[in-house]
Amino acid sequence: MPHVITQSCCSDGSCVYACPVNCIHPSPDEPGFATAEMLYIDPDACVDCGACVSACPVGAIAPDSKLTDNQLPFIELNAGFYPKREGKLPPTSKLAPVLPAPMVSPRPGGPLRVAIVGSGPAAMYAADELLTQRGVRVNIFEKLPTPYGLVRAGVAPDHQSTKRVTRLFDRVSEHTGFTAFLNVEVGKHLSHADLLEHHHAVLYAVGAPNDRRLDIAGMGLPGSATATEVVAWFNGHPDFADLPVDLGHDRVVIIGNGNVALDVARILTSDPDALARTDIADHALAALRASKVQEVVIAARRGPKFSAFTLPELIGLTSTCDVVLDATDHQRVIADLATVEDRLTRNKLEILTKLGDASAPITRPRIRLAYQLTPQRLLGDERITGVGFADGGTLDAGMVLTSIGYRGKAIADLPFDDVAAVVPNDGGRVLDTAGAYVAGWIKRGPTGFIGTNKSCAAETVRNLVEDYNRGQLGDPAHKPAALDKLVRSRQPAVVDAVGWRAIDAAEIARGGGQRPRDKFVDIADMLAAAATAPRPPAYKRLLAGLHR
Ligand code: NAP
After folding, report:
1. Cα–Cα distance, 458 to 126 (Å, whole number)
2. Which residues of 412-427 are buried (b: 16+ CB within 10 A; e: fewer)?
3. Whose CA is nearest to atom 8 of ligand 1?
4. What does pTM read for this prediction?
5. pLDDT tens digits for 296-319?
6. Hey, where are the domains in the chain?
7. What is the pLDDT of residues 274-298, one digit of tens each?
8. Is ligand 1 within 6 A of the CB of residue 408?
9. Ligand 1 pocket residue status of 11, Cβ below 6 Å
10. Which residue's CA is the closest to the ligand 1 atom numbered 25?
């Protein structure tokens, strides 16, 4: 009964280190780790101990006998990563190598203090890594009153298992060395220089908040938007609650075929009753209940073998939605299969060969994967009526969404590489800027999965601690307790971890047991919920401040 890793694999590698026989690969020290679509358990070496199940933060691992029908393809997918051998491998007792974290050397000026800007996965994994060291203090600064970045506002609401990683982040936030300053914007309420006056180092884990834009005629007309805006809309991000999403027509076209395109297509074609059991925003659920959309076309500019979506996500999509190809694209898939040797790409192509034909009548909202369509212009005068492609073909559509990737944004007082849209860095050390570090998408670009940020953040933290130990980081000018005063003087509506827990509890209560939570989308509502948090008596707050 070997264990199997399934679709929601976050690739953070926790399972690798928990495994007593080193049967999960690629491991973070192996070359393929950074680009792997997921991790795989070797069924011949697995000893069925279940240690990986407890270590996995997103519940992606189960014994092969406990998989749902939709998860069965993952048995072959895990096994296929390893060469075929005869029988069970002899048991070993070899743990995967753990990359050593340098120990913080104590200094007379007090413990290492690090400001982390952002509270998404890269920020929380960096905090976790720093807080493994005795005495270290981590202060997190987040623009919204709610933490966890793209886990809250980017992961699709029907992927609740992936969102379970927030339980790990909640545990990190309970550490005594951790303080959250939510609803505080660095660049508006506080500057980089302010943060450096109160910390030895500032680590930016701000992600890639912009979209890559497609520069073709018609972009910007009503009915055009980006897929990531729609993701933020259905996830209840306060800045996107009013996005005009008009679903009163037959077809939506999405340009680009990465995992974001798949997420949006799936949500737009899902049964609203099923979505009503998720944490989808109320406004999005209402719009989807009234939707007239019958088909979402995912249009890629290249052929099937270059599909940007990952195999686990394709397996998930085809097992839950009606997905079709037209006859020409079926031919393209078969032609690619005849030439491609790479195992993962062949697996994707084999799934595509089994898809239904687009000529069949539409009986429920469906997704069509389409290839060799380079967008040239959006059609329509007052609003979008379709999209024109370079081959002269057109597709009617009431809404066109570009889904061609995220893009990093420049940070005040730090250098910026405008081509790669990242902060130039060496292993997380920002070039030519003492005391500044980066982790996550602003460090390496917008690729990978939630857990990819664990090893990325660990590398940055290793370098930061090394610099601190070598005496390269100046001591903060102020005592730790002065920070709280400064933040409150600049942003009286700051929300702390206790306030966030009150928001969290209120959202869960609003879900009424039928849904994981019913999200607030209005910042004023979030702040009102935070204000109901039980507060310790003033003398205890004073003591806590003195001990910080
Ligand atoms: P992505 O995977 O980089 O895909 C971008 C798509 O846009 C590709 O199909 C690309 O086609 C196309 N494209 C780029 N420029 C174009 C242009 N000028 N015209 C037409 N098409 C163009 O981006 P993403 O979907 O935004 O995903 C970002 C990252 O988040 C990925 O690592 C993804 O795996 C991850 N993610 C994961 C999940 C999940 O695991 N469930 C969910 C969401 C996102 P070409 O290949 O031809 O350039």
Report:
1. 6
2. ebbebeeeebbbbbee
3. 256
4. 0.92
5. 999 999 999 999 999 999 999 999
6. 3-81, 112-209+408-491, 239-403, 495-547
7. 999 999 999 999 999 999 999 999 9
8. no
9. no
10. 258
